[in-house]
Amino acid sequence: MHELPLLIFTLLVQGSVGLTLFIALATGEKRSLLPAMLVSCVMGGLGLIASTLHLGYPLNAFNALRHVESSWLSREIVFASLYLAILGLATLLVMLKKQPSRLLLALATLAGLVDIYCMGAIYVHSSVVTWQHINTWVMFFGAAGILGAAIGNGLLPGITRLLRMAAVLVVAITAIRLLVQPDYVNFLASASLNEVVTLPHQPLVAFHQLTGLRNVAWGLSVLGSLLFAIGAWRSCRTAMLLGGLGLVVAEALLRFMFFSIL
């Protein structure tokens, strides 16, 4: 798939932002946050590297910064770099002083969330009809929350309050996504009848061809969220790990289908 670098980039950066959010929420706990912060930094860094591979010639990334005032791509690069810089500084301080900075983690999370918004805007304002809906932002922000919860469960175990908060967030995100789907499908149905819409044919055909895989992905997402929630409330780590694995696989499938409509 020629969009594989973008799939890797979006999932890694969104997962990193989600993990940073949970790290920020865990700063009051008496435990080491450094392993989770290092993982978040690595995910964000690898994501940015993957994004340059999509450009064909990686040095072209610098040219994309020349139109911040008008280009969502330029804004996305700026906030992604800002997010990673602040997170890197916060991680360095933990390594040196053994004490996490709530302010830096909050700023990193904020920059990351703005970056995800800009990331979504790139696709919402594109000519591909299946991306031109609020569903794109719902899926992107949802991926950050779900991946952050699933990865945080593995790196920040034993914090009951945080894990239950993560479980509530995962269930809420899954419910919101499902509630958005009927309006999204209606939007696509009306777009197929609108001759003004650019490129309605191929993306819509591909969207319907992926119905079976999409149902599998949604099934995994619902099952994973339920297992994750049950595990959190019953302190069953096995259920949480299985649920988290299902959620990660579902996110990968959903993102694969997002980029497979061209």
Automatic annotation (TrEMBL):
InterPro entries: DmsC (IPR007059). The chain crosses the membrane at residues 6-26, 33-57, 77-96, 103-124, 136-155, 162-180, 216-233, 240-261. Keywords: Membrane, Transmembrane, Transmembrane helix. PANTHER family: ANAEROBIC DIMETHYL SULFOXIDE REDUCTASE CHAIN C (PTHR38095:SF2), ANAEROBIC DIMETHYL SULFOXIDE REDUCTASE CHAIN YNFH (PTHR38095). This is Dimethyl sulfoxide reductase anchor subunit. It comes from Citrobacter sedlakii.
